[in-house]
Specification:
The protein is of the alpha/beta class. It is built from eight helices and ten strands.
Length: 281
């Protein structure tokens, strides 16, 4: 059994929150830069160039890539041989969020009640924590800062199994079409297929952090990813919604077994500022 003081969790979480908000991933920056070279719209080219400049300034000056620094969402894998000491694990995660958002001058965007008071909690907590127990004695943390301009454009649909590949493809593209300029394109489209209502959504959220340019290992799903990306980029929404062919940088699908009577599909849209970082103890 390996003992890990919860303060180490707090330290790692704080560092990941800052890194994700200050430094855009190299896969995103590379994709945006490449899109600038192929984007036919002059206005679209200008937007993509401004995004690249924004990434550089944020990284060098340690300031937020975007003013919406999002809700703090964590995917945490805990090895079954780990024993936490010195305090409460969930509180340690929230303490790391508080520290980063306070010391890093990141916007606090969480309200305590969704319907009535909607009073800001003042420290961007509580975090959203998805926990898995896995073999081993390590702790792996994936953090994503999820802004709501794009989150609000996400959707879940229970397709009929008879709809098959076309049903999945049509729903992905239709969701992107309805989103229009609202999610600050170019966007990353995470898709979860299968499982249950909540599992499909969870898969879709995780897929927004899958590296741009990667493909589903099953060539059939990879085919849907490629077809959906091409179709979305034919919509004409373009960078910042002002027209062009760079509406999405990637469509990332995850698939899992499901019930004989259903085919749930979740689409979680993320803006170009797909801020995520990961680390391990």
């Amino acid at each position: 059994m390996r003992e890990i003081p919860v303060e180490k969790i707090t330290e790692l979480v704080a560092g990941l929150c800052l890194k994700a908000n200050y430094e855009i991933g190299p896969d995103i920056e590379k994709a945006v830069s490449a899109a600038r070279e192929t984007e036919p719209s002059p206005a679209g080219q200008a937007v993509l160039g401004q995004l690249c400049e924004n990434y550089r300034i944020a990284r060098e000056e340690k300031i937020a890539v975007c003013q919406d620094t999002g809700m703090a969402v964590f995917f945490i894998d805990v090895g079954q041989e780990v024993h936490f000491t010195g305090g409460d694990f969930e509180e340690a995660v929230n303490a790391g969020v508080r520290r980063a958002y306070r010391e890093g001058y990141l916007r606090k965007s969480v309200v305590d009640d969704p319907v009535f008071d909607r009073k800001n909690t003042g420290d961007n907590t509580p975090a959203v924590i998805h926990l898995r127990i896995v073999p081993g004695d390590k702790v792996h943390i994936l953090f994503t800062a999820k802004g709501f301009g794009s989150e609000n454009m996400s959707a879940v649909k229970f397709c009929s199994p008879a709809e098959g590949e076309k049903g999945v493809l049509d729903f992905i593209v239709d969701t992107a079409r309805k989103a229009g300029p609202n999610p600050c394109p170019p966007m990353i489209v995470g898709v979860g297929v299968g499982g249950t209502f909540e599992q499909a959504a969870l898969l879709a959220k995780r897929m927004t952090a899958r590296p741009v340019g990667s493909r589903h290992p099953d060539p059939r799903y990879a085919r849907i990813e490629e077809a959906a990306l091409a179709a979305i980029n034919r919509l004409g929404t373009g960078p910042a919604g002002i027209g062009g062919r760079t509406t999405a940088l990637a469509v990332n699908i995850a698939s899992v077994p499901t019930h004989i009577a259903g085919m749930p599909v979740a689409v979680n849209i993320c803006c170009h500022a797909a801020r995520h970082a990961e680390g391990e103890i």
